[in-house]
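Extended Data, record RNA-binding protein KhpA
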Amino acid sequence: MLAQVVEHLIKNIVDFPDDVSVKSHENTRGELIRVRVNPEDIGRVIGRNGRTANAIRTVVQAMADHKVRVDIMDVRK
């Protein structure tokens, strides 16, 4: 469910929503959500001084009942 929330939030921010890929993995330290976006959208997702990325992480952590980490990466073509 959290991966779907992250995907929805990010697809509404970026210019290339078809390039957004969100994958969730469970490990011993909690859940890891990996987000890949188009290189042209990476600045838009991270935001000025990381504010947008931190806001996304805050929303996800508030919804979760366990430790969640959100990693944002760009797609290299």
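Summary. The chain has a mean pLDDT of 92.
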